[in-house]
């Protein structure tokens, strides 16, 4: 499978990824390589990863807890201090082996340590392969508010090895599908159509779908790295989805949602808003709602939940001049950015979702 050229780095696949890494990790390039893992990737992914690395560069391993709860400044401080203790310098490199939390957090730590060192993303979840590891966004949460602190800087490389997916629970695989569905909805109806018979897909199909999804995101990001225009299209489903994710994360009475689970709800809600604004047909909305709810379980919301979720929208990092900005579908495969939506329409969207 051929590599994809991003702005300033390559996205390399499967059998070629370890050879490419070996070409990068040479002593004249780097003094030390630090592999950042969580407790899960340390157990399930690190052994095979280490066995395939051919380098004379000194390797150190740092393990952190798994989960969104560690994606904060306290963990960054611990990691910066650990890097100092390990003797990391300006010529060190961080290898982020894990899901979206590891790539977001590890990238941010690398970008800020000694004013910036190189990093490589090696995503191990479907979500991080098709979304989090691609595009140069690195960051952490502020309290329960998602991705409030961060920097845009591209990695040295992204290495995609689908063999890591064999370690994932089904729930995590579904979470990654949300971003793939989004890529079809905002950019490519033909790609979206491939998910209509998802039960018939095999492993080879998945590899192709992963690559197509990455091509879509990379095509968008390459035109607009700093999100001043077309990159905003990638926020479809995320304005409400992130608010839902944050609310369920901070509320002890709620079961924490995976990112893709929250985004799946956000896509249905924002598709309904697109329908109400005459950007989608009833048939298109019904199709979107059916396919997403066939993959993802329904989430229950009461009126108090909805009010608090809407209150969280004001903290969305995409807001401008105090206005909440939505990216809405303009037919399947097209997007309309910078849309202001009245709260009454958001309430209507939630009421429609309740009828799933």
From TrEMBL:
Any one GO biological process: chorismate biosynthetic process
Record-level Gene Ontology MF annotations: 3-dehydroquinate synthase activity; metal ion binding; nucleotide binding
EC top class, as a word: lyase
Keywords: Cobalt, Lyase, Metal-binding, NAD, Nucleotide-binding, Zinc
EC number in record: 4.2.3.4
InterPro entries xrefs: Dehydroquinate_synthase, DHQ_synth_AroB, DHQ_synth_fam, DHQS/DOIS_N, DHQS_C
Residue stretches making up the 3-dehydroquinate synthase N-terminal domain: 62-174
Physiological role: Catalyzes the conversion of 3-deoxy-D-arabino-heptulosonate 7-phosphate (DAHP) to dehydroquinate (DHQ).
Protein name from the UniProt record: 3-dehydroquinate synthase
Species per Swiss-Prot/TrEMBL record: Flavobacterium indicum (strain DSM 17447 / CIP 109464 / GPTSA100-9)
Native organism taxonomy: Bacteria, Pseudomonadati, Bacteroidota, Flavobacteriia, Flavobacteriales
């Amino acid at each position: 499978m051929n590599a994809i050229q991003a702005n300033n780095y390559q996205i390399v696949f499967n059998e070629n990824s370890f050879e490419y890494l070996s070409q990068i990790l040479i002593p004249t390039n780097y003094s030390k390589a630090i592999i950042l893992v969580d407790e899960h990737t340390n157990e399930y992914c690190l052994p095979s990863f280490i066995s395939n690395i051919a380098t004379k560069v000194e390797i150190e391993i740092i393990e952190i807890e798994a989960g969104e709860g560690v994606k904060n400044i306290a963990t960054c401080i611990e990691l910066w201090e650990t890097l100092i203790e390990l003797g990391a310098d300006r010529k060190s490199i961080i290898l982020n082996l894990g899901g979206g939390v590891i790539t977001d957090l590890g990238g941010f730590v690398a970008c800020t340590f000694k004013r910036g060192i190189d990093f490589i993303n090696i995503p191990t979840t479907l979500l991080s392969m098709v979304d989090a590891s691609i595009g140069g966004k690195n960051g952490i949460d502020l309290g329960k508010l998602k991705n409030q602190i961060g920097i845009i800087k591209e990695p040295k490389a992204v290495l995609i090895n689908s063999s890591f997916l064999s370690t994932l629970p089904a729930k995590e695989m579904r979470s990654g599908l949300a971003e793939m569905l989004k890529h079809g909805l905002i950019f490519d109806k033909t790609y979206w159509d491939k998910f209509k018979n998802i039960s018939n897909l095999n492993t080879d199909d998945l590899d192709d779908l992963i690559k197509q999804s990455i091509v879509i995101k990379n095509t968008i990001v390459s035109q607009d790295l700093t999100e001043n225009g077309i990159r905003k299209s990638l926020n479809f489903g995320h304005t409400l989805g992130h608010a839902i994710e944050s609310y369920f994360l901070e509320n002890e009475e709620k079961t924490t949602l995976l990112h893709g689970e929250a985004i799946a709800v956000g896509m249905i809600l924002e598709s309904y808003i697109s329908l109400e604004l005459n950007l989608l047909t009833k048939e298109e909305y019904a199709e979107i709602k059916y396919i997403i709810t066939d993959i993802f379980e329904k989430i229950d919301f009461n009126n108090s939940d909805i009010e608090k979720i809407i209150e969280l929208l004001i903290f969305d990092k995409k807001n401008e001049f105090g206005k909440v900005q939505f990216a809405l579908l303009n037919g399947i495969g097209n997007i309309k950015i910078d849309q202001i939506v009245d709260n009454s329409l958001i309430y209507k969207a939630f009421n429609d979702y309740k009828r799933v």
